[in-house]
Amino acid sequence: MTHTPGTPPGREPALADTQRAHWQRTHTANPGMYGEHPSAPARYAAEVFAAAGAREVLELGAGHGRDALHFARAGFHVLATDFSPTGLQQLRTAAADQGLADRLAVTAHDARDPLPLPDASVDAVFAHMLLCMALSTREIEALVAEVRRVLRPGGAFVYTVRHTGDAHCGAGTGHGDDVWEHGGFAVHFFSRELVDALAAGWHLTDVHPFDEGELPRRLWRITQETPR
Ligand SMILES: C[S@@+](CC[C@H](N)C(=O)[O-])C[C@H]1O[C@@H](n2cnc3c(N)ncnc32)[C@H](O)[C@@H]1O
């Protein structure tokens, strides 16, 4: 088998590797593609995190950071991650322009890898449309285990995913494991069974359906907490 550049030796070339290049191109061609305003889930999460007394927020798949900037403006210390250095550079520039650089750090991270943080080191984790990227069920399970590892007891995890009721589920190219590629973007459409499985050992406090964008994307916003 030939080795794909950018893929660590021993790891199969995966859909996520080609998706990384696709997201790099997308963020480069469309700076600030999700706009300046925070998403509705981020506004909700900031309230949940504040009510829980959180100070540090880890955001996964932050893109160019419309939501990371909101968390920083709300007074949290934020670590924003994404596997696209281009998106993160846009976020770094916006944070500096808005005088938020002292509260917002960025680091490149592939959600398939362990989180670069110690155990029980953050109060809250947020991920808007990251777990439903081109990740296998096994990779999603490993990521949620990592989120649990880095959260302090009683820490909150708010994440959103497109689900099996979305119009694009079953459209385009199927990659198995409920992953469908449409217009160059691969999405893992979540079943309710997967949401429940990922909440095993957590306190699942909310599964909220909502829409975003013009398609519209059909999503769930999930809130779960680690036991105290
Ligand atoms: C649908 S966008 C959402 C961006 C941001 N959360 C927002 O709502 O504005 C998904 C983001 O996840 C990133 N991403 C996709 N797969 C990833 C992976 N395996 N590891 C880290 N980031 C990933 C992409 O680069 C992109 O910025």
List keywords for this structure.
228 residues, alpha/beta, Rossmann fold, 6 helices, 28% strand, disordered N terminus
Question: How would you portray this structure in words?
Answer:
With 228 residues, this protein is an alpha/beta fold. It has one domain: 3-Layer(aba) Sandwich (Rossmann fold), CATH 3.40.50. It has 6 helices and 10 strands, in the order ααβαβαββαββββαββ. A 7-stranded mixed sheet has the order 3-2-1-4-5-10-9. Strands 6-7-8 form a 3-stranded antiparallel sheet, with helices on one face. The protein starts with 14 loop residues before the first helix and ends with a strand. Bound molecules: S-adenosylmethionine.
